[in-house]
Design a protein that fits this description.
five-stranded parallel beta sheet, alpha/beta, Hypothetical Protein, Haloacid Dehalogenase-like Hydrolase, Chain: A, domain 2, 35% helix, 2 domains, 10 helices, six-stranded mixed beta sheet, Rossmann fold, single chain
Length: 273
């Protein structure tokens, strides 16, 4: 069995974070040919469900950069690599020391997702909170109400480059943590960071799917450093032209831009759809 694995933002989705009409038809053609495909994204299930609905994503989905694997047939997570309050304490304190508001993502009862945070300090943080709440439908709660036994999927933040890099340095000292980071807005020294359990990666989750589904070959698509782990284990890996330079360098080949149906066009050629 051959399995195609798609990253979403910056890869399968266009700049409006949508599945284009061209891509929608390509997915239909893959399904008609019996070619298996799924998704590996940094998003939560909640933030992805509506995007994927009706597009044939019937196999297990990889969420939060490999933290969790969702089984759409049963409606449950089959694998997870979660964090505890104790494991994030030093990082949380580092964010606060740097004047950056951390957003703590959790899995709540009933497979709901919530975000806990201390008081917001900047317009950028307030806009980010608005996106989480209004656009992604996540419940926003004060960090003081974070349960002692919370199931934490990740911590994310936006802040000044120096502040984010200081937190990254601390994460490198924490054996159980891994951080992905990058430029949020070019020219404004604003960076993002996303911190997970070190056992969680897209590559590790794809390897689990290979075992669970009996997959013999993997073809993957991605644009950022959180995709490098699955590139390393894939038989073929493709980066859209908008990808980070290190991702392009690791790819089997560089293909078209994500906002110009680059992945969809490549698939039609690759599989003669």
């Amino acid at each position: 069995m051959e399995l195609i694995v798609f990253d979403l933002d910056g890869t399968l989705l266009n700049r409006r974070s949508e599945v284009s009409a061209h891509t929608r038809e390509t997915l239909q053609r893959l399904g008609q040919r019996g070619i298996a495909y799924t998704v590996a994204t940094g998003r939560t299930l909640h933030a992805s469900r509506d995007l994927l609905a009706g597009h044939g994503f019937i196999l297990p989905h990889i969420y939060k950069n490999g933290v969790m694997i969702w089984q759409p047939d049963s409606g449950h997570y089959s694998h997870s690599n979660l964090l505890t309050n104790g494991e994030i304490r030093r990082v949380f304190e580092a964010f606060m020391d740097q004047g950056v508001t951390p957003f703590i993502f959790t899995v709540e009862p009933g497979n709901r997702h919530a975000v806990y945070h201390p008081p917001l300090q900047t317009d950028t943080e307030r806009e980010l909170a608005r996106v989480f709440g209004e656009e992604r439908g996540l419940e926003l709660l004060p960090v003081a109400s974070l349960p002692a036994e919370a199931d934490i999927t990740n911590i994310s933040a936006l802040g000044d480059r120096d502040a984010i890099e200081a937190v990254e340095r601390l994460v490198r000292e924490e054996e159980h943590l891994v951080a992905y980071a990058g430029v949020a807005i070019e020219g404004e020294h604003l960076h993002w960071v996303d911190i997970h359990h070190s056992a969680a990666s897209k590559g590790g989750a794809v390897e689990q799917l290979k075992l669970d589904l009996g997959v013999s070959r993997v073809i993957c698509f991605g644009d950022s450093d959180n995709d490098l782990s699955m590139f390393a284990g894939a038989d073929e890996s493709y980066a859209p032209s908008n990808a980070k330079e290190e991702v392009k360098a690791a790819a089997t080949a560089v293909i078209g831009h994500h906002d110009e149906d680059g992945i969809s066009e490549f698939l039609r050629r690759r599989f003669d759809l």
